[in-house]
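User: My advisor asked me to double-check a structure prediction for Pre-mRNA-splicing factor PRP46 before group meeting. I don't want to rely on an old file, so could you generate it fresh from this sequence?
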Amino acid sequence: MSLDTAPLPPLDPLLRASTKRTRELFASSLDYPRDEERSAKIRLNVKIHDEYRDFKELPSALLAQQGQVGPVRPKQDRKMITAGASSETTKMIAALDKTPAPQPSTLASRSDLSQALALHKTTRTVKPTYHAPWKLVRVISGHLGWVRSVAVEPGNKWFVSGAGDRVIKVWDLASGELRLSLTGHISTVRGLAVSPRHPYLFSCGEDKMVKCWDLEVNKVIRHYHGHLSGVYSLSLHPTLDVLVTAGRDASARVWDMRTKAQIHVLAGHTATVADVKCQESDPQVITGSMDSTVRLWDLAAGKTMTTLTHHKKSVRALTVHPTEYTFASASAGGNNIKKWKCPEGAFVFNFSGQNAIINTMSVNAEGVLFSGGDNGSITMWDWDTGTAFQNMDDVPQPGSLEAEAGVFCSTFDMTGTRLITGCADKTIKIYAEQ
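Assistant: Sure, here is a fresh prediction for Pre-mRNA-splicing factor PRP46 from the sequence you gave:
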């Protein structure tokens, strides 16, 4: 007769638990010298050393990526992006990185801690370049709806604006007088661009239409059909006869300017594509979407090169630096403006401080970044360091509601010394550097 006996539990854990309980009960009554604090510190030190000794240096791939800043654009007068920290600081960090790992028996001294704190402070405090303050110099009225788009012509003599009243207006930049009104859209005009190489003006709107206007006869000469919903943004390629539009159908479309043919449908976003920008070198097309991602596109293949998923909320605005190989994207929230490095889309830093939904951004060659919020907040930033050097509020015009203090669109003129903004109080405001 055989009995089914269950296997006995292992004795080691039981013995350990019993010993621990016995020690807790009787250790306090035993008279032996204890060095509890010192042993606890040594134990912690050993644990830190064992866990983190392999991570004192970045992997070689990441080190190489941090070391190089990215190629300069193919013009000689263009400057490289600076990482922010000085060379002395970099040397100090390198020196600290080469210190040997702490031995289990030694404890970190106070002097090492103070040295590390001092180093931390020196790496953080980078002085921004001085920029002159900006001041509101002119308010232009004339539109009967929210001003949703502005663009300056390459000769810097006039600029155009499009609004919720479905009219495109041409204004004299020096005097602010109305030169011309163009009608043809049947809904809000959301995007405008003046070609630097042709006498053409391009416009797009919530009526799904993309139009090409001949400025010699002031008439529409081409329509680009294909968007399934409102078109929110458009951008001209600086060197190719190519136009890129983006909108509520979650796609960006690449058009041949002359033949009206649709070259690519840049698909991949899952929500409205709020902004699109073109530049001459890769990535030649950058899109920001309400699905809270930024995509960098291979224009030749019509495919995504990189998807940037750092933003937590919808990306409404993009801006590309005119001389550096960098760009910025903006969404709603705290650290809502992010700077990126081309061509790989490496994250550089956050512009933090403007807690608003950012509708528009513009940057000039001097490194002044403008950001305009849905609540009327306006911030001027130093592009190199991400420091805000001026904060203002968009003041609604007399007769407007207090809630109509939003900034929807912006652009710098060709000199970079005047800033044109389109606002929710149906006006165009011009700021100048003092």
